[in-house]
Amino acid sequence: MKDMCTSVNTEDFAIKLIQLGANIYPRCRNNDSLLHIAVRKYFLRVAKCLIERGVDINAQNDDGKTPLRVVGDRQDFREIQIDYKQTRKDFEEGVSLLLYYGADASICDDKGVSTFEQFVLWHPWMFAVLEHLFDLTYDSYSECVIRLKALEYLMLYESPLFYKVMDRVTEVSLDNCVLAHAPFWMKTDYLRVFLEKFDHVVDEMLSDDNCCSTSWTWPFNETSIDNFRLLLESHLAPKTIEYIQEMSIPFIMSMVQRKTSVKADVELIQYLLTFGLGVSFSDIEKVYNLDGYNDLLKTMLHMIPIPESREVARCDVLPRIICDIHFDLETFLKDPHDCSVNSMKILLDYFANPRFRDYCLRRDVNSVTKKVKRLPTVPILVELARDATRKFLISRYKITRAAQFYSLLKRLPISTTHEKILSFETPLYR
Fold first, then answer.
1. What string of pLDDT tens digits covers the 430 residues of the chain?
2. Residues 362, 339: Cα–Cα separation, whole Å
3. Residue 161 near residue 119, CB atoms below 8 Å
4. Contact 194, 155 (CB under 8 A)
5. Which of 159, 207, 328, 405 is the most exposed place for a label (fewest CB within 10 A)?
6. CA neighbor of 67 nearest in space, from 56, 76, 52
7. What sign does the dihedral 133-136-139-142 (CA atoms) show?
8. What is the number of H-type helices and E-type strands within the chain?
9. Do 230 and 188 meet the contact criterion of CB atoms below 8 Å apart?
10. What's the start-to-end Cα distance of the chain, in Å?
């Protein structure tokens, strides 16, 4: 019968027991009072009944949490929930009820986290509730110390309360749960205000050794370039450059919101490249596999160092040909390793080499075999000329790295069409 009762029936039954004189002062697991349990379940009529009969509204459990704080600990609710509107209504009414009866919003838990800070972390979009809690917690005559993570959430969720908090806050408490790369996600104006008042905190955020290992992170967005520029124009420029040099291109690309355009991704990374963002062979491969021969790849080809043999040995054939100028299809065919189906298909857009055709046919993959049979029986002259010209230029100008080769192509008196063929930007067989 107990499991069959609705929450309304349960709440009515609890109120009836209280009215009949049931003990309302026992402590439960974790030293919770009945008021803690009532507000946690949103049994607000029970909570009101308990408060009116003298239950301590500010009682703390073993974690130092009051009933008001327990309301803030409720897992955040989203519009995708079936009961979203009712849950949000219960949440707001629960907070209002406790504050109406005199709940003290300034009480911190045993870790020193205030109710306001916890509400910011769990319910950052509840602007009216947060503002009311902030006014009850921090007055204009006392010190206002707020944890960095709470301020980060206000900035990242673009809370209109941010400016009011910044006017009053006197000190930022650093903790061990800083959001990774936070200075590069928030609105630029928020970062500017924060930097003006707490530049030493931003300095710590940029030098935090643990920030890159934070499990939950916020993606880069269109404002990231503006934020990098703001920091690079400040006295924190040296620290920002060090920070950039520790990052990697694949990491940035994985963190960029997919709703942004590829152009926005390229602009961000090209901007960072000018300040020392490192380029590796694996970066070239990942960028090529993600978006082909784009503008970012062209920029990176002018900055890549001589690849290490261990690094290139694990990479796809065509990206390796593009950026390892001493590696070509003939070199691959002397000691062919297992080539993925997708890699073979891509290579067949650029090569009709008979030995490579045989290699593909021996792999006996239907889709690859069909593509091989559509190729001419002998390579076209453009393919032969391309490969011979690349070898001649590398030998004639004693080129040792990809950056030299692609810089040379820009200076040769040849058409854009020929340049794209020599750089493997233009496929020959499609």
1. 233 234 557 788 888 888 878 888 888 888 999 999 999 888 899 999 999 999 999 999 999 999 999 988 865 444 434 444 557 788 888 899 999 999 999 999 999 899 999 999 888 888 889 999 999 998 878 789 999 989 989 998 899 999 999 999 999 988 765 566 678 888 899 999 999 999 999 998 887 554 444 434 556 666 788 888 899 999 999 888 888 877 777 666 665 545 455 566 677 777 888 787 778 788 888 888 877 898 888 888 888 776 655 656 667 899 999 988 889 999 999 888 778 899 999 999 999 999 999 999 999 999 999 999 999 999 999 999 999 999 999 999 999 989 999 999 999 999 999 999 999 999 999 8
2. 12
3. no
4. yes
5. 207
6. 56
7. negative
8. 26, 2
9. yes
10. 71
CA 105 to chain centroid, in Å, comes to: 33
Asked if residue 174 lies in contact with residue 202, where contact means CB atoms within 8 angstroms, the answer is: no
Q: Is residue 95 within 8 Å of 67, Cβ to Cβ?
A: no
Q: How far apart are CA 174 and CA 19, in angstroms?
A: 48
Sign of CA dihedral 208, 212, 213, 215: positive
Pull the structure tokens for residue 132: 């009311």
Distance, CA of 292 to CA of 274 (rounded, Å): 22
Domain ranges of the chain: 1-106, 294-430
CATH code for residues 1-106 = 1.25.40.20
C-alpha distances (whole Å) from 106 to each of 51, 113, 226, 287 are 19, 10, 37, 50
pTM of the model: 0.68
